[in-house]
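TASK: fixed-backbone design
INPUT:
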């Protein structure tokens, strides 16, 4: 189903609800306000992954699956949220007084949602209102009924959370008539997840859900969110995703610990480089005056890291680190004084990952340039054209195989950080076994790791072989490997649909 078709399909269901409810999405609160329906896709993390919070370049593929959110304003000061997905229907009611028109600290809302697990899911939706009120002066002069439906699988590492945040953001802005540019919308969605949901994610997921382009990789330099445009895959290549069936959660301790370890490593590097350090805004936080790397591990070159790596500890106890270094520069995580964190490997990962992603992008750009040159050759003779095509095919295979090597290196680095899983490792191993002879060039775990989905790069005609990898995985493990294929545009490319109550 195309992006517009799935949006209109949801709009049709909304119209039926309005007719049955005599103009209201929620029959307990009569309303004559129009309904705005918006959509946003999930994303497949092809390269970059967890290096986003360290300032890396990332390459993200917006998937076909999407979340749709319908918003209708209502007279009372309540958010009535109904969500429908594969697990069933869930309802939550959130009083707007909780946000005090945007004046309440984010911590209050986060604690309110965390106190009751049955309503925690609603933080992804309701948090949009609090962030917009606090940061963009959204007037919380009325409540809203929100209807959410999604076919983005949850816990698969394809960012179902960013899809619901982005779709909600689009629908709310349309219902309130508020203008916010796409980049800022993505940053606001990240704030929802960091500050209200309490998940320490980077910004790449939200940027992909909002700014992604169908059939292309979104290139984002996460310093903090510099959109670099989109990169099309060469004509002969495609990407797929295979779900391991092992649930991934960005709120998981492994992901958070690796992030903390990376920021601990940056703090140690800053000390080794003699950068000025001062106290931060709260305990356990410091400021670094960094004109060399501008606060991002990704800006540390592999060569420079080699100069310092001997002095980076393999691990550090939290209390020891805090006593020696005062804290980290990360505002969304805290160093637990009672825990021991891996430091060297989480520090090395974003440094080398950024270099891998940069090479990936350069190889793709070079391949695109070569395709353009082939098209410009035009009038060469048939024999010359045939010979050139043979050379082009060989060159393309060499490029594709190098892209695959970089993906396998990225996967290995995830595992070294402790973010692997038996399921994702098996899927990657099966891709390796298939190899380039069967049109499979590379594979890697995606997103936050520790389960979730594996991204696979292959020839455009290798879809059946990828599906075969999924079937073999299911035969060995008993887990169904959901296949992600296809693409769709981000929320900014498809305007919300307006549905009138009558």
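OUTPUT:
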């Amino acid at each position: 189903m195309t992006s517009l078709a799935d949006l209109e399909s949801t709009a049709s269901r909304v119209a039926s609800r309005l007719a049955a409810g005599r103009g209201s999405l929620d029959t307990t609160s009569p309303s004559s306000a129009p309904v705005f329906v918006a959509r946003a896709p999930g994303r497949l993390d092809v390269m970059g992954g967890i290096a986003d919070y360290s300032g890396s370049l990332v390459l993200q593929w917006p998937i076909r699956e999407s979340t749709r959110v319908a918003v209708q304003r209502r007279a009372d000061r309540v958010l009535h949220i109904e969500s429908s997905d594969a697990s069933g229907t869930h309802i939550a009611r959130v009083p707007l007084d909780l946000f005090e028109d945007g004046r309440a600290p984010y911590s209050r809302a986060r604690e309110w949602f965390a106190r009751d697990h049955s309503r925690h899911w609603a933080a992804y939706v309701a948090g949009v209102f609090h962030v917009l009120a606090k940061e963009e002066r959204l007037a919380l002069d009325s409540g809203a009924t929100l209807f959410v439906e999604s076919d983005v699988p949850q816990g698969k590492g394809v960012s179902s959370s960013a899809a619901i945040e982005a779709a909600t953001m689009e629908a709310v802005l349309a219902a309130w008539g508020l203008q916010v540019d796409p980049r800022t919308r993505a940053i606001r969605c990240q704030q929802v997840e960091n500050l209200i949901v309490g998940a320490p994610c980077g910004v790449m997921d939200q940027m992909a859900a909002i700014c992604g382009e169908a059939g292309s990789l979104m290139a984002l330099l996460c310093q903090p969110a510099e959109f670099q445009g989109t990169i099309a895959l060469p004509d002969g290549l495609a990407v797929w995703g295979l779900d391991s069936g092992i649930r991934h959660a960005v709120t998981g301790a492994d992901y958070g610990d690796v992030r903390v370890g990376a920021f601990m490593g940056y703090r140690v590097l800053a000390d080794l480089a003699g950068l000025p350090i001062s106290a931060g805004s709260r305990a356990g936080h410091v400021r670094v005056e960094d004109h060399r790397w501008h606060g991002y591990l990704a800006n540390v070159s592999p060569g420079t890291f080699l100069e310092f790596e001997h002095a980076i500890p393999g691990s550090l106890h939290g209390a020891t680190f805090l006593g020696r270094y005062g804290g980290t520069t990360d505002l969304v995580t805290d160093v637990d004084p009672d825990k021991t964190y891996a430091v060297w490997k989480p520090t090395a990962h974003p440094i080398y990952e950024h270099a891998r992603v940069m090479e990936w992008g350069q190889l793709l750009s070079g391949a695109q340039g070569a395709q353009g040159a082939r098209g410009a050759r035009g009038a060469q003779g048939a024999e010359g054209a045939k010979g050139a095509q043979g050379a082009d095919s060989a060159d393309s295979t060499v490029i594709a195989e190098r892209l695959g090597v970089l993906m396998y290196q990225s996967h290995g680095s995830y595992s070294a950080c402790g973010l692997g899983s038996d399921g994702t490792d098996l899927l990657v191993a099966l891709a390796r076994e298939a190899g380039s002879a069967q049109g499979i060039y590379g594979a890697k775990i995606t997103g936050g790791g520790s389960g979730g989905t594996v991204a696979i790069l292959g020839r455009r005609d290798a879809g059946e072989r990828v599906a075969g990898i999924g079937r073999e995985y299911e035969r060995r493990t008993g887990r169904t490997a959901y296949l992600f294929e296809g693409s769709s545009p981000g929320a900014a490319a498809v305007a919300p649909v307006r549905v009138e109550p009558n």
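COMMENT: DSSP finds 14 helices and 17 strands in the chain.
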